[in-house]
Design brief:
- GO terms for molecular function: 3-oxo-5-alpha-steroid 4-dehydrogenase (NADP+) activity; polyprenal reductase activity; polyprenol reductase activity.
- With 247 residues, the chain is mostly helical.
- The protein has two domains: 128 residues, no CATH class; 118 residues.
- Helices cover 60% and strands 2% of the residues.
- It has a two-stranded antiparallel ribbon with strand order 1-2.
- The relative contact order is 0.13.
Amino acid sequence: PCRYFSHFYIISVLWNGFLLWHLTRSLFLGVPFPNWLHGLLRILGAAQFQGGELALSAFLVLVFLWLHSLRRLFECFYVSVFSNAVIHVVQYCFGLVYYVLTGLTVLSQVPMDGRHVYVIGKNLLMQARWFHILGMLMFIWSSVHQYKCHVILGNLRKNKAGVVIHCNHRIPFGDWFEYVSSPNYLAELMIYISMAVTFGLHNLTWWLVVTYVFFSQALSAFLSHKFYKSKFVSYPKHRKAFLPFLF
Protein backbone atom coordinates (compact mmCIF):
# COMPACT_ATOMS: atom_id res chain seq x y z
CA PRO A 1 0.00 0.00 0.00
CA CYS A 2 1.13 3.56 -0.72
CA ARG A 3 0.67 4.41 2.94
CA TYR A 4 3.75 2.27 3.58
CA PHE A 5 5.78 5.28 2.40
CA SER A 6 5.90 6.15 6.10
CA HIS A 7 8.22 3.16 6.61
CA PHE A 8 10.88 4.89 4.49
CA TYR A 9 10.88 7.95 6.70
CA ILE A 10 10.82 5.96 9.93
CA ILE A 11 14.00 4.24 8.77
CA SER A 12 15.49 7.56 7.68
CA VAL A 13 14.71 9.39 10.93
CA LEU A 14 16.21 6.60 13.00
CA TRP A 15 19.25 5.81 10.84
CA ASN A 16 20.21 9.32 9.77
CA GLY A 17 19.55 10.56 13.29
CA PHE A 18 22.01 7.90 14.45
CA LEU A 19 24.61 9.07 11.89
CA LEU A 20 24.01 12.70 12.84
CA TRP A 21 24.53 11.82 16.51
CA HIS A 22 27.90 10.24 15.74
CA LEU A 23 28.95 13.16 13.52
CA THR A 24 27.91 15.71 16.16
CA ARG A 25 29.86 13.90 18.87
CA SER A 26 32.92 13.75 16.66
CA LEU A 27 32.71 17.42 15.64
CA PHE A 28 32.02 18.97 19.03
CA LEU A 29 33.34 16.43 21.54
CA GLY A 30 36.20 14.88 19.58
CA VAL A 31 34.75 11.36 19.88
CA PRO A 32 36.10 9.11 17.10
CA PHE A 33 33.76 7.24 14.78
CA PRO A 34 33.17 3.58 15.69
CA ASN A 35 35.49 1.19 13.86
CA TRP A 36 32.63 -0.44 11.95
CA LEU A 37 31.26 2.92 10.74
CA HIS A 38 34.69 4.22 9.77
CA GLY A 39 35.40 0.99 7.89
CA LEU A 40 32.08 1.23 6.08
CA LEU A 41 32.78 4.80 5.03
CA ARG A 42 36.20 3.80 3.72
CA ILE A 43 34.56 1.06 1.63
CA LEU A 44 32.19 3.68 0.21
CA GLY A 45 35.14 5.83 -0.84
CA ALA A 46 35.62 8.27 2.03
CA ALA A 47 39.13 9.68 1.79
CA GLN A 48 41.46 11.15 4.36
CA PHE A 49 41.73 14.94 4.20
CA GLN A 50 39.39 15.31 1.23
CA GLY A 51 40.40 18.16 -1.00
CA GLY A 52 39.03 21.29 0.57
CA GLU A 53 35.70 19.77 1.64
CA LEU A 54 34.30 21.53 4.69
CA ALA A 55 33.04 19.47 7.60
CA LEU A 56 30.33 22.09 8.18
CA SER A 57 28.87 21.40 4.73
CA ALA A 58 28.34 17.70 5.40
CA PHE A 59 27.03 18.43 8.89
CA LEU A 60 24.40 20.86 7.58
CA VAL A 61 23.36 18.53 4.75
CA LEU A 62 22.91 15.64 7.17
CA VAL A 63 20.82 17.93 9.42
CA PHE A 64 18.72 18.92 6.39
CA LEU A 65 18.24 15.28 5.38
CA TRP A 66 17.12 14.35 8.90
CA LEU A 67 14.74 17.31 9.19
CA HIS A 68 13.32 16.55 5.75
CA SER A 69 12.65 12.95 6.75
CA LEU A 70 11.10 14.01 10.06
CA ARG A 71 8.72 16.42 8.32
CA ARG A 72 7.75 13.85 5.69
CA LEU A 73 7.06 11.31 8.44
CA PHE A 74 4.79 13.84 10.15
CA GLU A 75 3.01 14.47 6.86
CA CYS A 76 2.49 10.74 6.25
CA PHE A 77 0.71 10.42 9.61
CA TYR A 78 -1.15 13.72 9.91
CA VAL A 79 -1.38 15.46 6.52
CA SER A 80 -1.49 13.05 3.58
CA VAL A 81 -4.48 10.90 2.75
CA PHE A 82 -3.36 7.89 0.75
CA SER A 83 -5.53 6.15 -1.81
CA ASN A 84 -5.85 2.40 -2.14
CA ALA A 85 -3.11 2.35 -4.77
CA VAL A 86 -0.15 0.04 -4.29
CA ILE A 87 3.57 0.12 -5.06
CA HIS A 88 5.71 -2.72 -6.35
CA VAL A 89 7.57 -4.75 -3.74
CA VAL A 90 10.87 -3.89 -5.48
CA GLN A 91 10.09 -0.18 -5.19
CA TYR A 92 9.24 -0.70 -1.53
CA CYS A 93 12.52 -2.51 -0.81
CA PHE A 94 14.48 0.15 -2.67
CA GLY A 95 12.78 2.86 -0.62
CA LEU A 96 13.81 1.13 2.60
CA VAL A 97 17.51 1.25 1.71
CA TYR A 98 17.51 4.56 -0.17
CA TYR A 99 17.77 6.88 2.83
CA VAL A 100 20.26 4.56 4.52
CA LEU A 101 22.55 4.88 1.51
CA THR A 102 21.87 8.61 1.16
CA GLY A 103 22.89 9.28 4.76
CA LEU A 104 26.07 7.27 4.31
CA THR A 105 26.75 9.20 1.11
CA VAL A 106 26.61 12.47 3.03
CA LEU A 107 28.79 11.13 5.83
CA SER A 108 31.35 9.81 3.33
CA GLN A 109 31.97 13.43 2.25
CA VAL A 110 33.24 14.40 5.70
CA PRO A 111 37.03 14.98 5.71
CA MET A 112 38.61 12.45 8.06
CA ASP A 113 41.81 12.25 10.07
CA GLY A 114 41.87 8.59 10.99
CA ARG A 115 38.57 7.99 12.80
CA HIS A 116 38.21 11.68 13.67
CA VAL A 117 36.57 14.42 11.63
CA TYR A 118 39.17 16.78 10.23
CA VAL A 119 38.06 20.39 10.81
CA ILE A 120 39.98 22.92 8.76
CA GLY A 121 40.97 25.76 11.07
CA LYS A 122 39.93 23.70 14.12
CA ASN A 123 36.75 25.81 14.43
CA LEU A 124 33.56 24.65 12.78
CA LEU A 125 31.81 28.03 12.82
CA MET A 126 34.78 29.66 11.09
CA GLN A 127 33.97 27.48 8.08
CA ALA A 128 30.67 29.29 7.45
CA ARG A 129 30.42 30.51 3.86
CA TRP A 130 27.84 32.28 1.70
CA PHE A 131 26.71 29.01 0.12
CA HIS A 132 25.81 27.60 3.54
CA ILE A 133 23.39 30.49 4.09
CA LEU A 134 22.02 30.27 0.55
CA GLY A 135 21.58 26.50 0.83
CA MET A 136 19.76 26.87 4.15
CA LEU A 137 17.38 29.49 2.73
CA MET A 138 16.69 27.33 -0.32
CA PHE A 139 16.05 24.31 1.88
CA ILE A 140 13.54 26.19 4.06
CA TRP A 141 11.82 27.74 1.02
CA SER A 142 11.48 24.40 -0.79
CA SER A 143 10.35 22.57 2.34
CA VAL A 144 7.64 25.14 3.08
CA HIS A 145 6.24 24.84 -0.44
CA GLN A 146 6.33 21.06 -0.39
CA TYR A 147 4.43 21.07 2.90
CA LYS A 148 1.84 23.48 1.48
CA CYS A 149 1.36 21.24 -1.56
CA HIS A 150 0.89 18.14 0.58
CA VAL A 151 -1.67 20.02 2.70
CA ILE A 152 -3.56 20.99 -0.47
CA LEU A 153 -3.58 17.38 -1.67
CA GLY A 154 -4.66 16.07 1.71
CA ASN A 155 -7.48 18.60 2.03
CA LEU A 156 -8.97 17.43 -1.27
CA ARG A 157 -10.04 14.28 0.55
CA LYS A 158 -11.22 15.92 3.78
CA ASN A 159 -14.19 18.03 4.79
CA LYS A 160 -13.90 21.42 6.45
CA ALA A 161 -13.59 19.71 9.84
CA GLY A 162 -10.52 17.83 8.65
CA VAL A 163 -12.25 14.45 8.50
CA VAL A 164 -11.38 12.15 5.59
CA ILE A 165 -14.50 11.63 3.49
CA HIS A 166 -13.17 9.90 0.37
CA CYS A 167 -10.02 8.77 -1.43
CA ASN A 168 -10.91 9.99 -4.91
CA HIS A 169 -8.74 12.19 -7.10
CA ARG A 170 -9.63 15.83 -7.64
CA ILE A 171 -7.90 18.72 -9.38
CA PRO A 172 -5.68 20.59 -6.91
CA PHE A 173 -5.34 24.37 -7.02
CA GLY A 174 -3.15 26.87 -5.21
CA ASP A 175 0.54 27.48 -4.55
CA TRP A 176 2.79 25.78 -7.14
CA PHE A 177 -0.15 23.74 -8.47
CA GLU A 178 -0.92 26.78 -10.59
CA TYR A 179 2.21 26.02 -12.62
CA VAL A 180 2.82 22.26 -12.54
CA SER A 181 0.84 19.09 -11.83
CA SER A 182 3.28 17.74 -9.26
CA PRO A 183 4.85 20.65 -7.34
CA ASN A 184 5.61 18.30 -4.45
CA TYR A 185 8.01 16.45 -6.76
CA LEU A 186 9.49 19.73 -7.96
CA ALA A 187 10.00 20.81 -4.34
CA GLU A 188 11.74 17.48 -3.64
CA LEU A 189 14.21 18.25 -6.41
CA MET A 190 14.75 21.78 -5.08
CA ILE A 191 15.43 20.38 -1.60
CA TYR A 192 18.21 18.18 -2.98
CA ILE A 193 19.57 21.08 -5.03
CA SER A 194 19.67 23.16 -1.85
CA MET A 195 21.90 20.47 -0.35
CA ALA A 196 24.16 20.63 -3.42
CA VAL A 197 24.43 24.38 -2.85
CA THR A 198 25.27 23.74 0.81
CA PHE A 199 28.12 21.52 -0.36
CA GLY A 200 29.45 24.55 -2.23
CA LEU A 201 28.16 23.54 -5.70
CA HIS A 202 31.32 21.54 -6.46
CA ASN A 203 30.54 18.15 -4.89
CA LEU A 204 30.24 15.72 -7.83
CA THR A 205 29.00 12.87 -5.64
CA TRP A 206 26.00 14.87 -4.47
CA TRP A 207 25.23 16.14 -7.96
CA LEU A 208 24.92 12.48 -8.99
CA VAL A 209 22.35 12.09 -6.22
CA VAL A 210 20.54 15.20 -7.54
CA THR A 211 20.59 13.71 -11.04
CA TYR A 212 18.91 10.54 -9.79
CA VAL A 213 16.29 12.60 -7.92
CA PHE A 214 15.65 14.70 -11.02
CA PHE A 215 14.91 11.74 -13.29
CA SER A 216 12.90 9.79 -10.70
CA GLN A 217 10.75 12.79 -9.76
CA ALA A 218 10.36 13.87 -13.40
CA LEU A 219 9.10 10.40 -14.34
CA SER A 220 6.61 10.36 -11.46
CA ALA A 221 5.45 13.87 -12.37
CA PHE A 222 5.01 12.93 -16.02
CA LEU A 223 2.88 9.91 -15.13
CA SER A 224 0.77 12.00 -12.73
CA HIS A 225 0.30 14.70 -15.35
CA LYS A 226 -0.77 12.11 -17.90
CA PHE A 227 -3.25 10.64 -15.41
CA TYR A 228 -4.78 14.03 -14.56
CA LYS A 229 -5.20 14.95 -18.23
CA SER A 230 -6.86 11.63 -19.04
CA LYS A 231 -9.20 11.72 -16.03
CA PHE A 232 -10.29 15.37 -16.09
CA VAL A 233 -11.50 17.00 -19.32
CA SER A 234 -11.39 20.42 -17.63
CA TYR A 235 -7.80 20.02 -16.43
CA PRO A 236 -5.90 23.36 -16.80
CA LYS A 237 -4.14 23.30 -20.16
CA HIS A 238 -1.42 25.76 -19.12
CA ARG A 239 -0.03 23.47 -16.42
CA LYS A 240 3.17 21.62 -17.11
CA ALA A 241 4.07 18.29 -15.58
CA PHE A 242 7.22 19.09 -13.60
CA LEU A 243 9.10 22.25 -14.59
CA PRO A 244 7.09 25.50 -14.86
CA PHE A 245 6.65 26.69 -18.48
CA LEU A 246 9.01 23.98 -19.77
CA PHE A 247 7.97 20.36 -19.07
